[in-house]
C-alpha cells in the first residue's frame, strides 16, 4: 500500500506531532522515524519486541604506538586537524573523516582503519511494525542509515505507512523520499520557515513525488501565512490546511494524550488536514 | 540493446527496487541475445556516493536503457551527460517491465 | 567570554537566545555557525558584505592521466568515477582530503578552489556580526565554521549560534567556548534532545546551563533532569503568542518588555563562568 512522508526543512515545526497523529487516524500498522540524528517517535511507540542492529560508519584511523616512528607526516597531511602530537601521535575520532591519507603517507605502516559502531537500526514489533534508528554523536548525517531504516518496512502492508522524515534538505532527506507516494510538508509562518519550505519544494519537484503543504502555528504571523498560501497557489501546490498556535498542546503530549482524540483545536485541525491528504492520495 | 533494472531479489521475477544506488541487485538484459544476467550491487553499502558508483557500473555494462522508479540528483546529473535513456518502472515484476518497455508502454523519466 | 548556544533540534529557540544575548552584551561579536539555516544574522541587518569561502577539489590533467584508476580506488567518498575511460570529479561528494593527488603516480592531479559558501558580515552599533552560509547542495560546512570562529579572539566577548543536532559541526562550534547554553522546550521531545546535546558537551568538559524556552506552568520534566545531572537552570522564556510573533518578524525582543528575562539569564551565565 501507500507510503506517506512528513517533512519540514526547518526543525521544530511540529513534524513529529503531525506524523504521530496521522498514525492514529490512518490506523497505521507500519511507520518509521527517519530523523536518525534526533529521533523522537520512539518516545511514543516504545513497546513490544525490539530488534536492534549495529550501524557501522566509515572506517576511521588508529595509530599503532609501537610501530609509530613519530615522523609527523600524518599530522602534516591531515586536512581535518584530526591528529595531535601530544604524548605520541593520536587520532581524534570525532574529527577523523576516514579519508585514508594518513595511512597512505605513513612510512612505518603504523596506521590502520577500523569501522566502529556509529549508531543503531531498530525495529519494534507489536500489533504494529515500527522502524527507527539513531546515530551516535559526531557521526554526521547519513543517507545509508536512513535507507537501512526504510528497508525494514514491509512493502505489502495494507494500511497507510507513515514516515517521519529528517530535517534539512541534504542526503538523508533524499534517502527518505525513495519509494514514497506522497509528501506532506509542514511549515510555519516565519522568514526561515518560508525560505526552507521553498528549498524543500524545489527538491521534491525534482524527485517528481506528489506533495501538499500545511502551515502550523499559522496565527503567529497571519500576514506571512497569507504570503505562503499565495506562493503555493502560484506554484500550483496543494494546500491542505492550517493549525493554530496553542499552548496546551505541549501539556497534552507530555501526558501522552493523543491530540486527535482530545477536544483540542490543533487536534481538530490535524483531522481536517488528514482528510484532505487522504483524498489527494 | 542492453537494459538494466535495479532489483530487490535475484532474477526476472523479482520486483523493481525502490532505490537505485542502494538496490540489492541489477538485472542486465540483452535484447539481442534475449537473455538476462543478475549482478550483485557491490556498492549498496557505501557510506558515500552509492548512486554515482551505479552510474559508473551502468557505463561499464554499455547500458542503453535504465528502468527505475526514480533517481537521485547527483546520479541524474551525470547520467544526463551520457547516452543512457531513463524510463520509469511500473509496479510489476522485472520481466514485465522489460516487456512493457519493448511494447513502448513505459514513460521516459527525463 | 565566549558563549555557545545549542539545542538538540531546530526550533527550540536557539537563535532567539543567541541573538538576544549578543544584543545585551556590550561590544560583543555574534557568530552564526548554523550554516545550513543561516537566519540569526538577519535580526541585526538586511545588508552584508559577503566573503567567499573555498575548499580544494581535484582537477585531472587528461594529458598526464593514464587511467590507472588509483585515485578512484583510493577515494573513500566516491568523489571520482571512471566515466567512459576518463576520470570524472564530483565536487559535491569531495571532502578535500587531498588523497587523490598524493596517490597519483603521474602527477596528473592538481587542486583548484571550489566555492562552498560565504561568510556574511557587518557591524551594527558596537556589534560585529558574522554568519556562515553553506551553498545549496554542499555536504558539509565545517570549514566555513572554522573560518567564522577565527573572526573572534579569546579576549573578546562573543555569542555563537550553533548548528542543530550533534554532528561534527556542533563539536567544532563549541570547541573554544567558555560556556554552553542549552536551550530546551519542556516536552518529552525537548528532554530527549537535551540529553543528546548534554552527552556531547560532557565530552568536552564544558561549563553549561539550561534555559527553558516556551515554558509552561509545569516544567518538571526538564527540571528533574537538570537536578539529577547537576546542571543549573538559568531562566525561563514564557510561551506567549506576542513573543512568537515578534520573533517571527525578526525583532530583537531583548530591547522591549521581554528584556528582564534575558538580563536575568545573562547575569546567571556570568556568575557560572566565574565559579
Keywords:
heterotrimer, A: 281 residues, alpha/beta, Rossmann fold, 2 domains, elongated, B: 110 residues, Nucleotidyltransferase, domain 5, 5-stranded mixed sheet, 3 helices, globular
Outline of the structure:
The complex is a heterotrimer of chains A (281), B (110) and C (275). Chain A has 9 helices and 13 strands.
Explain what the structure shows:
The complex is a heterotrimer of chains A (281), B (110) and C (275). Chain A is of the alpha/beta class. Helix content of chain A is 32%, strand content 23%. Chain A has nine helices and 13 strands. In chain A, the strands form three sheets. In chain A, strands 3-8-9-2-10-1-11-12-13 form a nine-stranded mixed sheet, with helices on both faces. Chain B has one domain: Dinitrogenase iron-molybdenum cofactor biosynthesis domain (Nucleotidyltransferase, domain 5, 2-Layer Sandwich), CATH 3.30.420.130. Chain B is 25% helix and 24% strand. Chain B contains three helices and five strands. Chain B has a five-stranded mixed sheet, covered by helices on one side. In chain B, helix 1 packs parallel to helix 2. The two termini of chain B are 19 Å apart. Chain C is an alpha/beta fold. Chain C folds into two domains: 210 residues, P-loop containing nucleotide triphosphate hydrolases (Rossmann fold), CATH 3.40.50.300; 60 residues, Alpha-Beta Plaits, CATH 3.30.70.20. Chain C is 32% helix and 28% strand. Chain C is built from nine helices and eleven strands. In chain C, strand 10, helix 7 and strand 11 form a beta-alpha-beta unit. In chain C, helix 1 crosses helix 9 and helix 4 packs parallel to helix 5. The model of chain C has no long low-confidence stretch (mean pLDDT 92). Classes of the chains: A alpha/beta (281), B alpha/beta (110), C alpha/beta (275).
Amino acid at each position: 500500500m501507500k507510503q506517506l512522508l512528513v517533512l519540514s526543512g526547518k526543525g521544530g515545526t511540529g513534524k513529529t506531532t503531525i506524523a504521530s497523529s496521522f498514525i492514529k487516524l490512518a490506523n497505521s500498522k507500519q511507520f518509521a522515524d527517519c530523523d536518525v540524528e534526533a529521533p523522537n517517535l520512539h518516545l511514543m511507540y516504545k513497546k513490544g519486541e525490539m530488534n536492534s542492529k549495529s550501524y557501522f560508519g566509515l572506517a576511521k584511523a588508529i595509530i599503532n604506538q609501537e610501530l609509530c616512528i613519530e615522523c609527523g607526516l600524518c599530522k602534516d597531511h591531515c586536512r581535518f586537524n584530526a591528529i595531535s602530537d601530544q604524548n605520541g601521535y593520536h587520532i581524534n575520532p570525532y574529527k577523523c573523516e576516514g579519508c585514508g591519507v594518513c595511512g597512505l603517507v605513513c612510512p612505518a605502516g603504523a596506521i590502520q582503519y577500523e569501522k566502529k559502531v556509529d549508531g543503531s537500526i531498530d525495529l519494534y514489533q507489536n500489533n504494529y511494525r515500527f522502524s527507527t534508528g539513531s546515530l551516535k554523536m559526531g557521526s554526521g548525517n547519513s543517507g545509508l542509515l536512513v535507507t537501512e531504516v526504510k528497508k525494514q518496512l514491509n512493502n505489502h502492508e495494507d494500511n497507510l505507512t507513515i514516515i517521519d522524515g529528517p530535517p534539512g534538505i541534504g542526503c538523508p532527506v533524499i534517502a527518505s523520499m525513495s519509494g514514497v507516494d506522497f509528501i506532506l510538508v509542514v511549515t510555519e509562518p516565519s522568514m526561515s520557515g518560508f525560505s526552507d519550505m521553498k528549498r524543500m519544494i524545489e527538491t521534491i519537484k525534482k524527485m517528481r513525488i506528489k506533495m501538499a503543504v500545511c502551515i502550523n502555528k499559522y496565527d503567529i504571523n497571519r500576514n506571512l501565512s497569507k504570503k505562503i498560501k499565495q506562493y503555493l497557489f502560484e506554484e500550483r501546490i496543494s494546500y491542505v490546511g492550517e493549525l493554530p498556535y496553542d499552548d496546551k498542546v505541549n501539556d497534552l503530549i507530555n501526558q501522552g494524550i493523543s491530540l486527535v482524540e482530545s477536544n483540542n483545536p490543533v487536534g481538530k485541525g490535524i483531522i481536517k488536514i488528514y482528510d484532505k491528504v487522504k483524498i489527494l492520495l | 540493446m542492453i537494459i538494466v533494472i535495479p532489483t530487490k531479489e535475484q532474477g526476472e521475477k523479482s520486483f523493481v527496487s525502490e532505490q537505485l544506488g542502494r538496490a540489492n541487485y541489477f538485472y542486465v538484459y540483452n535484447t539481442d541475445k534475449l537473455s538476462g544476467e543478475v549482478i550483485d550491487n557491490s556498492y549498496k553499502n557505501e557510506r558515500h556516493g552509492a548512486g554515482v558508483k551505479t552510474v559508473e557500473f551502468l557505463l561499464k555494462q554499455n547500458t542503453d536503457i535504465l528502468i527505475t522508479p526514480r533517481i537521485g540528483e547527483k546520479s541524474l546529473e551525470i547520467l544526463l551527460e551520457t547516452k543512457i535513456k531513463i524510463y520509469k518502472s511500473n509496479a510489476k515484476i522485472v520481466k514485465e517491465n522489460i516487456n512493457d518497455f519493448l511494447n513502448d508502454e513505459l514513460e521516459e523519466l527525463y | 567570554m565566549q558563549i555557545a548556544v545549542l539545542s538538540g533540534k531546530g526550533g527550540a529557540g536557539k537563535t532567539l537566545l543567541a541573538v538576544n544575548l549578543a544584543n545585551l552584551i556590550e561590544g560583543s561579536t555574534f557568530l552564526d555557525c548554523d550554516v545550513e539555516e543561516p537566519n540569526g544574522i538577519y535580526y541585526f541587518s538586511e545588508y552584508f558584505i559577503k566573503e567567499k569561502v573555498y575548499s580544494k577539489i581535484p582537477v585531472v590533467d587528461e594529458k598526464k592521466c593514464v587511467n590507472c584508476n588509483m585515485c578512484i580506488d583510493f577515494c573513500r567518498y566516491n568523489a571520482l568515477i571512471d566515466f567512459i575511460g576518463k576520470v570524472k570529479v564530483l565536487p559535491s561528494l569531495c571532502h578535500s582530503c587531498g588523497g587523490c593527488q598524493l596517490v597519483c603516480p603521474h602527477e596528473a592531479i592538481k587542486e583548484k578552489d571550489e566555492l562552498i559558501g560565504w561568510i556574511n558580515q557587518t557591524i551594527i552599533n558596537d556589534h560585529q556580526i558574522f554568519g556562515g552560509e553553506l551553498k545549496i547542495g554542499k555536504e558539509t560546512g565545517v570549514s566555513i565554521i572554522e573560518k567564522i570562529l577565527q573572526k573572534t579572539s579569546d579576549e573578546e566577548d562573543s555569542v555563537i549560534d550553533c548548528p542543530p543536532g550533534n554532528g561534527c559541526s556542533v563539536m567544532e562550534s563549541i570547541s573554544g567556548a567558555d560556556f554552553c547554553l542549552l536551550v530546551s522546550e519542556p516536552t518529552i521531545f525537548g528532554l530527549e534532545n537535551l540529553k543528546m546535546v548534554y552527552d556531547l558537551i560532557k565530552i568536552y568538559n564544558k561549563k553549561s546551563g539550561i534555559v527553558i524556552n516556551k515554558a509552561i506552568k509545569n516544567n518538571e520534566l526538564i527540571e528533574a533532569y537538570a537536578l539529577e545531572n547537576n546542571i543549573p537552570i538559568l531562566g525561563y522564556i514564557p510561551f506567549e503568542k506576542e513573543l512568537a510573533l515578534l520573533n517571527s518578524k525578526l525583532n530583537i525582543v531583548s530591547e522591549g518588555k521581554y528584556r528582564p528575562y534575558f538580563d536575568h539569564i545573562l547575569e546567571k551565565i556570568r556568575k557560572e563562568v566565574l565559579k
